[in-house]
Specification:
This protein has 178 residues and is mainly α. It has one domain. The chain is extended. It has six helices and no strands.
Length: 178
């Protein structure tokens, strides 16, 4: 077995361990998303500044990319360096996710009603409107529950991240052994 395969297997095992950690600490896993948001904001700000300098060299001197870049870096550093800012980002993410679930569920319910109407008018393509209605009701319910139990939604997101990471690790090992 070559060095590349051994390295990939070791890397896959480490990914699986990281995914298992996420599964056993789902709320903390969700909380780490605020760190990711802060890092991405800093990286975006630096990239905007680089774009501005390149644009300036070409004679185009619009200052907005630089202002946006500075704002992104400042806000990113604020998030990374301040617990309360990270907490605010986490709460914003969780309530945005809850709102997204509520809207998505409501849209599926409305879509199922349109499908039902089309089916009753003789269009057999829409005979499966009931599963869409049930899915819409379930998604809407999860969204509403999430508004009142944000910790539960945080844990759910963390668990799904853990499962995804474990699956990636298994895939890496599988590719290495292929």
């Amino acid at each position: 077995m070559g060095f590349g395969k051994v390295f990939a297997i070791i890397f896959g095992v480490l990914i699986i361990i990281g995914g298992a950690y996420c599964l056993f600490t789902p709320v903390e896993t969700f909380a780490s998303l605020s760190w990711l948001v802060g890092i991405v904001m800093v990286a975006d700000g630096v990239a905007n500044a680089v774009v501005w300098f390149q644009m300036r060299k070409s004679g185009y001197s619009n200052v907005w990319p630089l202002i946006g870049g500075i704002a992104s870096v400042v806000l990113g550093i604020l998030i990374l360096g301040n617990y309360f800012a990270r907490f605010a980002v986490e709460m914003m993410l969780i309530y945005m996710l809850a709102a997204w679930l509520i809207v998505g569920g409501a849209m599926r319910i409305l879509m199922s009603m349109n499908m039902r109407t089309a089916y009753k008018e003789g269009d057999d393509r829409f005979r499966n409107w009931v599963p869409v209605l049930i899915l819409g009701i379930l998604i809407l319910a999860v969204g509403v529950i999430s508004l009142f139990d944000p910790l539960g939604l945080m844990a759910t997101v963390g668990i799904f991240m853990g499962i995804s990471i474990v699956a990636m690790g298994i895939g890496v090992i599988g590719l290495a052994l292929a």
